[in-house]
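re the bet — no i am not wrong, look at it urself. input seq straight from the record:
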Amino acid sequence: MGEPQAKHDVFQAIADPTRRRLLKLLADQEMPVTVISGHFPMSRTAVSKHLRILSEAGLVKERRVGRENRYRLDPEPLQEIKHWYAYFERFWENKWAALQHFVELDDPDQ
């Protein structure tokens, strides 16, 4: 027997620009794949594959309404990115402070 298919993590899911655009599109409203695919220059099948990856990462929720599936953003998994960014932001802040100090030292008007 084969191993179950690995779920995509949040970082893998947002690595693709099309999937980032999908998240923005779904941020404000729930939409069926037929409407979503009208916003992209690709087939409905290709859009569905991107939605599946986002769903496996927990970023998109799917709901059956009649004969269609509707998709909406679930922002909760984005907290992982926020925490990662916050951890590394301290390094950037240190670099900005050092650059500001260097520029101020080199400024002949001071």
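see?? The first strand starts at residue 31 and ends at 32. told u. also The chain has a mean pLDDT of 88. so pay up
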